Amino acid sequence: MTGSVANASAASGTEVGYPNGHLGHLKPEEQEALESFKTYLAEKGYYKPGPPASHDEQTLLRYLRARRWNVVDAFKQFKETEDWRKANDLNVLYDTIDLEAYEASRRLYPQWTGRRDRRGIPLYLFEIRHLDSKTVSTYEKAAETNPSKAVTDGQTSPKLLRLFALYENLTRFAQPLCTELPDRAHATTTPITLSTNIVDVSGVSLRQFWNLKSHMQAASQLATAHYPETLDRIFIIGAPSYFSTVWGWIKRWFDPITVSKIFIVSPSEVKATLEEFIDPKNIPKQYGGELEFTWGDQPKTDPFIKETVRWENGLKDFPEGPKYWRPTADGTRMECVAVGSEGGKQRMVSVGTVERICNVKEVEKKVNGDAETLAEEVKGLSVGDDEKKEVVETGEGATVPAVSA
């Protein structure tokens, strides 16, 4: 490994790593930096204290941690991200992306298994051998057309913008869901803003790595710039003998903090290492665990999650495609809404709700239950106002893809 299991444990111990530096576990100087950051952002016109505030504190903390609590440096990265999001209409991209275009991206890149690690952080799997040059070429050609109602400045490649719909799913769906699950340490104080990743590089030739180099570099650098501190532990499995050469490229794509979280696991250490951080029932069988999860599968939702969600519209699991969580009108629960488009028809369907467990000072949108207000959250839809109202209130006219068993 690049670091031993003991070192990996230390990275999440009492001095460094989650939950330290997160809400509920801030040192006095870190709390002071957060307040200074909010004031500085407000002065620059990038933050409104509300209520409701324009950005939640857990998001602001991601930028501070990424820039080692330097307010000015954190502002620079935050500003660049906010400008980039606005220039590329990221919210509209996610809310209106064509479902098949979204799924085409999901099938290529890190996939949520539907499970979590021992700390309650969502667990992702990335099998790189599926990302061969032919597949990437086909995907990139298909991605030349805009799959959503977003209007962009053209500076970011469309093929990469589709990828960032997946990062939006991480921050708007998977992390908020895991935040409100009560079966984890710090559930009432500390939101989940990270992900744990198993990266399988077995069966990948040096030529394949080389052919993917520019594509993966561009994606990694943009993700590091605009979604800081969303990655926690990254376990690289199946590394071939030449991987030290590849590692020399890869580690330059990330900041030092991210590099410190990456562990190259030898074949003999895979099962023991993963079990230290992940319950065996949540580890895919091919890595010594018990979970039936094959690359490309829809998430195999944790039975506890299924029991915790109060399902709506006849659903028993989360549908395919983009989804996000928002507070209910009374603020006591979080509601999951499935969005995206199919056949040009906008989808906005209530999937279910969970009780709010994490009692931090939330920054949230005002939700008053008015259907017209809810519909306006998605701009530029291809349906009329009356149709929007019908979809929001009843789900009629919206399509819900088949869910996984």
TrEMBL record:
Transmembrane segments: none annotated. InterPro entries: CRAL-TRIO_dom, CRAL-TRIO_dom_sf, CRAL/TRIO_N_dom, CRAL/TRIO_N_dom_sf, PI/PC_transfer. CDD domains: SEC14 (cd00170). It comes from the Eukaryota. Residues 1-25, 383-405 are annotated as: Disordered. Residues 101-295 form the CRAL-TRIO domain. Residues 1-12 have a biased composition (Polar residues). It holds the Pfam family CRAL_TRIO_N. PROSITE patterns: CRAL_TRIO. PANTHER family: CRAL-TRIO DOMAIN-CONTAINING PROTEIN YKL091C-RELATED, TRANSPORTER, PUTATIVE (AFU_ORTHOLOGUE AFUA_5G09260)-RELATED. This is CRAL-TRIO domain-containing protein. It comes from Neurospora tetraspora. The lineage of its organism: Eukaryota, Fungi, Dikarya, Ascomycota, Pezizomycotina.
